[in-house]
Each structure stands twice: as structure tokens, then as C-alpha cells.
Design brief:
Elements: H1 10-40, H2 44-63, H3 65-72, E1 75-77, H4 84-97, E2 103-107, E3 114-120, E4 123-129, H5 130-135, H6 138-154, H7 156-182, H8 196-234, H9 237-251, H10 256-262, H11 289-307
Parallel strand pairs: 2-4
Antiparallel strand pairs: 1-2, 3-4
Helix pairs in contact: 1-2, 1-7, 1-8, 2-7, 4-6, 6-8, 6-9, 7-8, 8-9, 8-11, 9-11
């Protein structure tokens, strides 16, 4: 974790270390197995190309994670002249947390949300949507921004980016394998007797499943950790709780088309872009609103006890 005044979280650090180790192992295994399958079928050059492509995608995702995420949300970077109040709020929070100031962005969408991204505190960005700016008070927005800055300080956005990279590579290989099946991919692997496309597809699907589970292992905890750290930094947990309630309520009136367009970024948002509670919450990237409000209520009681 970066050296800041955000509350340290040993549980988050331990989970991130475990997830990074397992993700790295899964990613290396994926590339190695795919290369071995192709090489054993006499397709050595294609095997080397697959390995290089996988490493290239992972590096690009890591190096350009802030820009990639902003483009995905069609967010634009704003200057202090364009958004003076937003910049002033982030300036105060960064000074209080003793951390570098990230780039500041705004995404033009009715979906009320915010996210942080970047490979390090020195190369990061915090983005809010026009939808969230319309519904939150200054104190509520400050709570949301403190939550997002906590993600940057804890470096958990880097872990989530790494997780998404492994999933993207596995997904690309799965699609490529299916493409091979459609266009004469019946050639057999010399060792297993399986068609090459089927062997690659199976390995990719297993890797994708492992990545999916690892993201869930970390994602819910990191949101609770950011809620906790942000609330202690501002000293106003009730403001963040009020913001979360407004955001969740507003999701129910956002057009479905806009929600669907934003959902690929759910793992990075402060609240998932979904309506209501249904089976999708069983695999949600976030804890329930009730869990988050209960934690913030405990923090409020703790802060009052300290003041007393």
C-alpha cells in the first residue's frame, strides 16, 4: 500500500497479494498451455505469436489502464478552470491524505457513478459522471471522492486491472478457438487426440472461470475497505451512506440502454450499474447496500465515541 494517511488495511493487502499471485500463475499457465498445444500440433510460429500477444495485451492494460478506462466510459479530462469545485475538493482530500493528485475526469452519462483507475498513485485518474454530479450534495460527493482516492492509495485498482487483463486474454483465446472450429478447426492435437480448437477453448474457459472467482474474492472486500478508509478520512461516514443510497435509488430510473453500456465497468464503479436486486447480485462485484450502510453506521458510532 502507498504511504498515505488513509487507514491501513492488512486484510486488503493480504487479499491483493494472494490474488496477484494466483492471477499470475493462472495467466502464465494459460499462455504456456496454449503455446504447448499449438507447438505439439506443429504450429510453433503460431504458438510464439500467441505468447507474445498475451504478454503484449497484459502490458498494454497495465501501462495504459487509466486512459483505457476513461475511453471505455467516454470520459474527458477536465482542468481546474473547467471544473473548479471538483478540483478543489480533490485538492483538499489529497492534501488530507498526503497523496499525489490524480487526473480528474467527467463522463457524460445519466448513470450516477464514479471510479478510479491507474497503475500507480502517480499515474491515476478519478472520474465522476454528470449523473452523480446532479444528485449529490458537496458533502456526499466528498465522501464518494474519498472512497475513490482510497482505491488509488491502496493500489487495488492495479490488481483489478491485472485481473481484467487475464480475463480479456482468456476471452480472446476462447473466441479465437470457436472461430477455428467454424472454419475447419478439426485438426487433432498429437498428444490428446482432441481438436486443437477444443483444447484451447477448454483451457481458456478454465482460466476465465478462475479469474472470475478471484475478482469476486477481492472486489467486495475492496469496496468495504474503501468505504471505511474514505469515511475515516473525511470524518463524515453518514455523508457517504447518504450518497450510496441516492446512487442506488437513481439507478432504477436510468434508461436500460445507458445502464447496459456502463456495465462492463461495474467492477471499478462505486456502485454497480444495475436495477434492484435479482440473481445478478449473487455474483456482484460489490457488497450489498445494507452491508455498506451497517459498516458506515459502526464507523459513525466509533467516531462519536472518540469525540466523546
Amino acid at each position: 500500500m502507498a504511504r498515505t494517511r488513509f487507514v491501513a488495511d492488512a486484510g486488503l493487502t493480504a487479499r491483493m497479494t494472494l490474488v496477484i499471485f494466483l492471477l499470475g500463475a493462472a495467466f502464465v499457465a494459460l499462455i504456456t498451455v496454449v503455446m504447448s498445444i499449438l507447438a505439439s500440433a506443429g504450429m510453433g510460429s503460431l504458438a510464439l505469436l500467441a505468447g507474445a500477444a498475451g504478454l503484449g495485451i497484459a502490458f498494454y492494460q497495465w501501462y495504459s489502464s487509466d486512459s483505457v478506462a476513461m475511453r471505455a466510459m467516454r470520459a474527458r479530462e477536465v482542468t481546474p478552470q473547467q471544473a473548479p469545485e471538483l478540483h478543489a475538493m480533490i485538492d483538499r482530500l489529497c492534501a488530507a491524505a498526503d497523496m499525489p493528485k490524480p487526473r480528474v475526469g467527467v463522463a457524460d452519462t445519466n448513470v450516477p457513478n464514479a471510479f478510479a483507475t491507474g497503475r500507480s498513485p502517480q499515474r491515476s485518474a478519478v472520474v465522476v459522471t454528470t449523473g452523480i454530479l446532479q444528485i449529490l450534495t458537496a458533502e456526499e460527493l466528498e465522501g464518494v471522492l474519498a472512497h475513490e482516492l482510497s482505491h488509488v492509495a491502496h493500489r487495488d485498482v492495479l490488481v483489478m486491472t491485472a485481473a481484467s487483463s487475464a480475463g480479456i486474454v482468456a476471452g480472446m483465446l476462447s473466441q479465437g478457438a470457436q472461430f477455428g472450429a467454424w472454419f475447419g478447426g478439426g485438426r487433432r492435437d498429437n498428444n490428446s487426440g482432441l481438436p486443437i480448437w477444443l483444447a484451447v477453448l477448454l483451457v481458456s474457459m478454465v482460466t476465465y472461470a478462475v479469474t472470475f472467482l478471484l475478482v469476486k474474492l477481492l472486489s467486495r472486500y475492496r469496496e468495504l475497505s474503501a468505504d471505511r478508509s474514505g469515511a475515516y478520512l473525511t470524518g463524515r461516514p453518514q455523508a457517504l451512506g447518504s450518497a450510496l443510497q441516492k446512487i442506488s435509488g437513481r439507478m432504477n430510473v436510468v434508461p436500460d440502454q445507458e445502464l447496459r453500456a456502463s456495465q462492463p465497468m461495474n467492477a471499478f464503479f462505486i456502485a454497480p450499474a444495475i436495477k434492484g436486486v435479482d440473481l445478478r447480485t449473487l455474483t456482484s462485484t460489490h457488497p450489498t447496500l445494507e452491508q455498506r450502510l451497517e459498516q458506515l453506521a459502526r464507523i459513525e458510532a466509533d467516531l462519536r465515541g472518540r469525540a466523546g
